Fold this sequence. Notes:
CATH class of the largest domain: Mainly Beta
Helix content: 10-25%
Amino acid sequence: MRLDKNTYGTVLLVYVLSVVLAILLFLFVQTAWLVWPLAALLLCFCLWQTYFHMVPDRTGAGSSSLVSSVADGKVVRIGKAFETCYLCRECQVVSVYMDFWDMHANFWPVTGSVSYTMYHPGEHFLAFKPKASEENEHTCTCIRTPDGKDVFFKQLAGGFARRIVCYAREGLDVTAGEQCGIIKFGSRIDIYLPLDAEILVEKGQYVRACETIIARL
């Protein structure tokens, strides 16, 4: 595993603030039974933040016809919806919610070429709420496979997320299982698939980025 290149500053800030707080605790709080547990909590917070922003080493199972999960998390929605941003047609949708304990690195779901990408500012409702899909801050990306199939996905900010990183640019050739970005803190991925795609996961199932196949095109 490695630390995501866009999170060096965030993780460094967490460590600096934690060290400052620890120093203040030892200088101004004289109760040992209170100081040491609080210092231990600060250390645990630093370690958690380091883990949270790591990019795991995974063996990609996706291809140009097999759609792998963009992120680690729980499948919270499977259904149909009209995609209004780019495709402008009805699609099957699979939503994966990432909680605080999941790594938040994101990966390309299929092999193909980026045909569209756009950042949309917005609200920060809790990511598992249905209205978050349209109203929350998000980045949209569409990948067209060599067979002409479109796989569209949204990186959605959640109630605490304040930054979405996406490496997409139009015309970029991408490979399923390679990193495509990261979302900082609680968030969600919505994957829009063709109506004839075969969905291979169930609502409530925990999926792993790169390794779990979401659908077959």
